[in-house]
Amino acid sequence: MEPEIVHTQTETPEVNLDCSLAGYNYTLPTELIAQNPVFPRDSSRLLVVNSPTTGTQTAPLHQIFRDLPELLRTGDLLIINDTKVIPARLYGRKSTGAEVEVLLLEERQYNCWLALVKPGKRFKPGTKIIFPPRGKDSQPLPTELSATVIDTDPATGGRLLRFDVPEGKPLVEVLDQFGEIPLPPYITASTAADEQYQTVYAQQPGAIAAPTAGLHFTPELLKKLGDRGINQASITLHVGIGTFRPVEIEDVTSHQMHEEWISVPPATVEQIRATKAAGGRIIAVGTTAVRALEGAAKSGDLQTFCGKTDLFIYPGYEWRVVDGLITNFHLPRSSLLMLVSALIGRERLLSIYQEAIALKYRFYSFGDAMLILR
């Protein structure tokens, strides 16, 4: 007698899309990638999302950014990032005459900067790069700026450059004469002036990209918020490669964020504690403000902090400081999309993105904004 053949079905393990890179994909029509900012800044659209912890989730509201004072409450506290974008993109040439493009990332030592260099493979230690002055604004042309490759950086694929700065000045003091403000690669046809890629409250030079949620504010709007008892406090996070580098590993929980420098001063910590004690909400202006605040509270309680953070926020994160967020619309499969998903849920966020696409909201750095209230 033939033995009975038993057919078994192999079970496919269920994939947790909250922790999978594939769970953060969406398709965006190219025409919705904003190439220029709106004018005035606060005339951008604002999609408002309530995210109560209990009860029925309400449908998003569609407002204008200048409506913000009516959408927040007296006693709320806005946390702004006062970083300032530096002219971090430089164009130069090697001693052979070959053209070079350099994107400064961060200063590692005095006038020694980590940078991405194109084309990068041939830039070995000892290679020298000459940067001619741009001669803008009818300023007297300074002498040439030069840099020497002194090391490689496997983590970023970049190079460590030692700059020989005219008159021994700090590099940041002469960058206006040699560099340009670096716009993100998806902005390909912009006519925006440099100051349109800075927040109106930018003070601390060091970022290579703007904290774009702050681009919607005008001095008049900030005053109106203050008049209504919605105060502001500042942190600094110098936006670097950690913010815009894509997540490339399928298991997002294994992604390692690059470090970024943050400062959360004592006055801001005191304002946050006083606001929470009085029942007010902490509203972060941008994901950079979120990372700074939550990074400074990594031990459990918010503390004054000055240093680097590699905090990576994705669904399941236990929030310590932030009660709400003002943010732009983010790229698919990005760490920023995962951070916002941690606030309101991945499926709900992607559903809201589809609604925004259908209503032709403008996406990314020069695009429209969202207000998310937990």
Structure description:
The chain has about 375 residues and is an alpha+beta fold. The protein has 2 domains: about 15-85 and about 190-374, QueA-like (3-Layer(aba) Sandwich); about 90-180, QueA-like (Thrombin, subunit H). Helices cover about 20% and strands about 25% of the residues. The chain has helices spanning about 70, 175-180, 220-225, 240-245, 265-275, 285-295, 335-345, 345-360; strands at about 45-50, 60-65, 75-80, 85, 90-95, 100-110, 110-120, 130, 145-155, 160-165, 180, 205, 230-235, 260-265, 280-285, 305-310, 325-330, 370-374. It has a 9-stranded mixed beta sheet. A 6-stranded antiparallel beta barrel has the order 5-6-7-10-9-8. A two-stranded parallel sheet has the order 4-12. A hairpin with a 4-residue loop joins β9 (about 145-155) and β10. α7 (about 335-345) crosses α8 (about 345-360). The relative contact order is 0.20.
SSE inventory with pairings:
Blueprint (H helix, E strand, L loop, with lengths): L44 E6 L10 E4 L3 H4 L5 E5 L1 E3 L3 E6 L4 E11 L2 E7 L9 E4 L13 E9 L4 E7 L10 H4 E2 L23 E4 L11 H9 L3 E7 L3 H4 L15 E5 L1 H12 L4 E4 L1 H10 L8 E5 L14 E5 L6 H10 L1 H13 L10 E5 L1
Parallel strand pairs: 1-18, 3-13, 3-15, 4-12, 15-17
Antiparallel strand pairs: 1-2, 5-6, 5-8, 5-11, 6-7, 7-10, 8-9, 9-10, 13-14, 14-16, 17-18
Helix pairs in contact: 7-8
